């Protein structure tokens, strides 16, 4: 069956492609496996029913994570572009309006890239610090006072050299990878980084399992509390974890799928990516809680008496304290922080590829020019915003709003517009089924059009109410307004302005492949 793209479109430069299915799967897993797998899942599972949490977690994976992943794949692959390009082509008569949704997702990725890079820089620093256990006996004080030099909420230009230098290095490597393009940049980087990450983390887990108290740590994590399943918040936590872990609903998988060949199986690899990501999360849970069990044993307390079991606190305060007490701690620290840096980096390049691809297509730039432009601007903003004494607080607040408001809103808006307003569910379902081995049916449309908007809509509304009523982390209201709601405003402004700018080459001269029943074309008004 021939490619149905119009002749005028065929004169354009060929679209970049992954070298094959394996290359795509490796890159997609690299995107999904990130910081949250290591520092978020174990604590979330522990706090929400332990072993019983795996039940709502699996339900959330099957009813929301995989369906939205397939939706992203279908959009990107059928309409062959970055998020703005794909949404514009999908929109038909409303193409320009829907393009703004694509730019909304790009803007989210842009903002996340600014601070995500900083955490990787911290991990690189702590990888070096692990050789001589530089944090000493006060891991908390070292991180906040000696390393980050955290000051009061505000905006400072007092740069911290220990953050600035590795941050610059991370940005240089990131720009080089993006400039290499899809096959020679992103795929090649993931091809070496993902195996190294897996080997290093497996070594860490094996070492942790032989520590004194490891069994108590695993019991604390996996002992099921089935009574917790009656709490709706536990189920919301499961959907939240799956949603943030799979790199869905903010342009990454739309962009990645657009680089697949026309005749490409989408759903089979999607299942591999989803379950590989979840498998790594469970592996991370084993490694983290075996180590926490050792820490509790050394302190002579129960695991439930420990503090800082998730996020930045777990990684840069609790784990260094554990490493200081552990036989062969230097090696363990290198493995942990090296794994953290690699997991973060493979996700970072996917986040920034969303932005680079969109800019490349909108303004007709080469791969290298787009990478340098996006990377250069991002690096400057990242350095000025997050490598100073106020960087930690700004990072924490922007992350909360970008993820819990920005990404969730993007998912809710996308599913409602595509499935209810434009009614494109059957077309996207049939596209998946026309080229994939694992078929989806009406149940997929129900999940994407009904269950996902309800669950994520509840998450979004409840989180917004909490942020407005209770604030966040005891920070001043003016600070949360500036860096929290201000980040959301910046995302919206970028989406509007980018949509209004003219295209270097119109993306509208396009016809999807494969050809589907005539009524789909009539619904688009084509």
UniProtKB/TrEMBL annotation:
<feature type="transmembrane region" description="Helical">
    <location>
        <begin position="21"/>
        <end position="39"/>
    </location>
</feature>
<feature type="transmembrane region" description="Helical">
    <location>
        <begin position="371"/>
        <end position="395"/>
    </location>
</feature>
<feature type="transmembrane region" description="Helical">
    <location>
        <begin position="443"/>
        <end position="465"/>
    </location>
</feature>
<keyword id="KW-0812">Transmembrane</keyword>
<feature type="transmembrane region" description="Helical">
    <location>
        <begin position="192"/>
        <end position="214"/>
    </location>
</feature>
<feature type="transmembrane region" description="Helical">
    <location>
        <begin position="103"/>
        <end position="129"/>
    </location>
</feature>
<feature type="transmembrane region" description="Helical">
    <location>
        <begin position="271"/>
        <end position="297"/>
    </location>
</feature>
<dbReference type="GO" id="GO:0016020">
    <property type="term" value="C:membrane"/>
</dbReference>
<feature type="transmembrane region" description="Helical">
    <location>
        <begin position="159"/>
        <end position="180"/>
    </location>
</feature>
<dbReference type="InterPro" id="IPR037272">
    <property type="entry name" value="SNS_sf"/>
</dbReference>
<dbReference type="InterPro" id="IPR000175">
    <property type="entry name" value="Na/ntran_symport"/>
</dbReference>
<keyword id="KW-0813">Transport</keyword>
<keyword id="KW-1133">Transmembrane helix</keyword>
<feature type="transmembrane region" description="Helical">
    <location>
        <begin position="477"/>
        <end position="501"/>
    </location>
</feature>
<feature type="transmembrane region" description="Helical">
    <location>
        <begin position="401"/>
        <end position="422"/>
    </location>
</feature>
<keyword id="KW-0472">Membrane</keyword>
<feature type="transmembrane region" description="Helical">
    <location>
        <begin position="51"/>
        <end position="71"/>
    </location>
</feature>
<feature type="transmembrane region" description="Helical">
    <location>
        <begin position="330"/>
        <end position="359"/>
    </location>
</feature>
<dbReference type="Pfam" id="PF00209">
    <property type="entry name" value="SNF"/>
</dbReference>
<protein>
    <submittedName>
        <fullName>NSS family neurotransmitter:Na+ symporter</fullName>
    </submittedName>
</protein>
<feature type="transmembrane region" description="Helical">
    <location>
        <begin position="234"/>
        <end position="259"/>
    </location>
</feature>
